[in-house]
Design goal:
rod-shaped, 57% helix, 5-stranded mixed sheet, single chain, Beta-Lactamase, 475 residues, 3 domains, alpha+beta, Helix Hairpins, Heat Shock Protein 90
């Protein structure tokens, strides 16, 4: 259906344009030939009429008639010598009765203009009884008496434009035949090209219908380097992205189910033990309630992180930016987490470059604290006992660079590009323990930093620790 509609529309448009050009070409050629050649004939007959009148003024009528007949022979013309009352004195042999009637009516109609003539001919274009014929060119020139300078008659010339008309008709027919051939060739080429263009478009249309049905394994076999192939490449790229989105959504649901099922199982199991216990064991109940509380907190954290990411995705997160002394802000967060470092006997340090001391930066302190805390907790989680974590703040190329380096387990090369994805964990076993995370922390870090027009990156070698970087523009 797409192929037929597109091919038909293009064919109709091209044909309308071609036919319009043909009409313009033929009409223009017809007008040019008529105008150009009639102007030429008009100038020529004007000169001839003046020459004939001058000759008649200087010679006898019989000699003049012979002269005019000799001059006008073969020119497809008619001449008439008139007296001062516009009555015919002499005329060429080819004046028919019908033509004389036309000339008589013309003389009567233009009598006043003719009688006012002096030394210039009166020229007129007259349509004859012949259909589709170029108008005849008529000229009348006064004949003056050389002694008294009075008008004693007129010389009338009728120039038939038949030869010109035949040439014009031949030219129009030639142009018409050429136009028909051009239209025919144009129609064939248009149909060929429209089919060549619409065929891959039709294939793309069918493939997109299958993509819309959820088949993301489709491959578009459109070759070339034109706009259609570019469209096919774009659709193919979109298909890959849709497939990634579908897979990530399935993975997202799987991870959500997994991360919620485990704490629910713990809560359900321990609460069931307490419910079915016949005797109250305070120590055991305290231990069970502690587990239930811990799992409930973990569920709360997961739901809170999901809610935050949803707000970030929907653009509903409104930043409350302030002008903050960056060094004092960082020191406060670092000092509030010293206890966490010491619980795992982790060595720690904070280094602030001189150019950052007292420097004020515009950002949302609460959201950026959330991002930094996520990074710190992630580093603590993956750094072993007696490990080391170093936090530093510097300024480079118009950006604040906040780095956090640990001596933990590091990140494998194949995992580095994915650690910012939601629920991604390098530990494929996803074993849950008291230190397990939701898998949303780094995703939240990335979203918050990018919301501040910043960026994130990481350098790591498996087994040698990792260093995370946050880049924020200095406004």
């Amino acid at each position: 259906m797409l192929q037929k509609k597109l091919a038909t529309k293009i064919t109709v448009v091209v044909m309308v344009i071609l036919l319009s050009l043909v009409v313009i070409l033929i009409s223009g050629a017809n007008w040019i030939t008529k105008t150009h050649y009639q102007d030429h004939v008009e100038r020529e007959i004007s000169v001839r009429a003046a020459a004939h009148a001058n000759f008649i003024e200087q010679h006898s009528d019989d000699l003049a008639i012979d002269y005019i007949e000799e001059i006008e022979e073969g020119k497809n013309s008619v001449f008439i010598i008139l007296d001062s009352d516009l009555s015919a004195i002499s005329q060429s042999a080819n004046v028919s009765g019908e033509l004389w009637n036309l000339i008589t009516d013309w003389l009567i109609e233009n009598r006043e203009s003719i009688e006012r003539l002096e030394n210039e001919p009166f020229i007129d274009h007259v349509d004859t009884y012949i259909v589709h014929h170029i108008p005849h060119v008529w000229a009348i020139m006064p004949i003056s008496d050389s002694a008294t300078d009075e008008v004693r008659g007129y010389i009338f010339l009728d120039q038939d434009t038949g030869d010109i008309n035949q040439a014009r008709i031949k030219l129009v027919i030639l142009l018409l035949l050429m136009s028909i051939a051009a239209v025919g060739v144009g129609l064939i080429l248009t149909k060929y090209l429209t089919r060549k263009v619409s065929r891959p478009l039709n294939e793309i249309s069918k493939m997109t219908e299958k993509i819309a049905e959820g088949n993301f394994e489709i491959k578009l076999n459109v070759s070339g380097k034109d706009e259609v192939s570019h469209l096919a490449d774009s659709i193919q790229s979109m298909t890959r992205q849709l497939k990634v989105y579908r897979d990530s959504r399935r993975q997202f649901i799987s991870h959500i189910s997994h991360d919620l099922r485990t704490p629910i199982t713990y809560i359900k199991g321990y609460s069931a033990v307490m419910k079915e216990s016949e005797q109250i064991n305070h120590e055991e109940w305290k231990r069970n309630i502690n587990v239930i509380y811990h799992e409930a907190r973990r569920m709360e954290k997961l739901v809170s992180d999901l809610f935050l990411l949803t707000k970030l995705d929907e653009g509903k997160m409104v930043l409350e930016k302030e002008l903050i002394p960056i060094d004092a802000w960082l020191k406060h967060i670092y000092q509030s987490r010293i206890l966490l470092f010491e619980q795992k006997l982790i060595k720690h340090s904070l280094n602030i470059s001189g150019e950052c001391k007292g420097l004020k930066v515009i950002f949302d302190p609460n959201r950026m604290e959330q991002a930094l805390v996520n990074l710190m907790e992630n580093a603590i989680r993956h750094t072993p006992i007696n490990g080391e974590i170093n936090i530093s703040l510097s300024k480079k190329h118009g950006h604040i660079v906040l780095s956090l380096k640990d001596t933990g387990e590091g990140i494998a090369e194949e995992d580095i590009l994915n650690i910012w994805d939601r629920f991604y964990k390098a530990d494929k076993s996803r074993k849950q323990n008291e230190n397990s995370a939701t898998g949303l922390g780094l995703a939240i870090v990335k979203e918050i930093v990018e919301l501040h027009d910043g960026s994130v990156s990481v350098d790591s070698v498996k087994g040698e620790g990792a260093e995370f970087f946050l880049y924020l523009p200095v406004e």
